[in-house]
């Protein structure tokens, strides 16, 4: 489901350490906020310092803090099904504004 994420390539965060499957998985915080099939969803990932926040259709679905990696590649994937991506924007955060 949208909003879950997995620690990859040695990444760790508060509460998610080590290479065991259960420790790498960061489940979303609540029920799915995905739109019905046939409608576009909006996802936003804000990476500020050592914190990552994931929003689905404007709702905070996940947050990881005290991350040990703060730079690297961005991966977009789908598990077990097709994915269609319409637009992707990568923008730097304003230096004077904390992540919301």
Q: Supply Rg.
A: 14 Å
In spatial order, strands of the major sheet run 3-4-5
Question: What is the general shape?
Answer: globular
Oligomeric category: single chain
Pattern of helices and strands? EHEEEE
Instruction: Catalogue the unreliable spans.
Output: none
Q: What do the pLDDT scores average to?
A: 83
Helix content: under 10%
Q: Can you count the beta strands? A: 5
The total count of helices amounts to 1
Distance between the ends? 22 Å
| Main sheet summary | 3 strands, antiparallel
State which percent range the strand residues make up: 15-25%
**What structural class do helix, strand and pairing data support?**
mainly beta
Element layout with pairings:
Elements lengths: L4 E2 L14 H4 E2 L16 E6 L2 E6 L2 E6 L36
Antiparallel strand pairs: 1-2, 3-4, 4-5
Précis, in short:
The protein is mainly β and 100 residues long. Helix content is 4%, strand content 22%. It has one helix at residues 21-24, and strands at residues 5-6, 25-26, 43-48, 51-56, 59-64.
Detailed description of the structure:
With 100 residues, this protein is mainly beta. The protein is 4% helix and 22% strand. The strands form two sheets. Strands 3-4-5 form a three-stranded antiparallel β-sheet, with no helix packed on it. A hairpin with a 2-residue loop joins strand 3 and strand 4. It starts with a strand and ends in a 36-residue tail after the last strand.
